[in-house]
Amino acid sequence: MRLDIRYRTAFTYENLVRESQNELRACPASDEQQELIAYRVYVAPSARVYSFTDYWGTRVDSFGVRLPHVAIEVTAEASVETFLRPQVTVAPHLDSLRDPAYLDAHHEYLQPSPHTDWAEGIATEAARQRDLIGDDVVSLVLALHRVTGARLTYARGATDVGIPVEDVLAQGKGVCQDFAHLAVALCRSQGIPARYVSGYLFTRDDSTGTDVDDVDVVNVQTHAWFEASVPGFGWLALDPTNQQEVGDRHVKIGHGRDYDDVQPLRGVFSGGAAPSVDPHVEIRRVRASDSPPPGERRRDPLQLNELARQQQARDVEARTQHQHQQQQQ
Question: Is pTM, for the whole model, over 0.90?
Answer without folding.
Answer: no
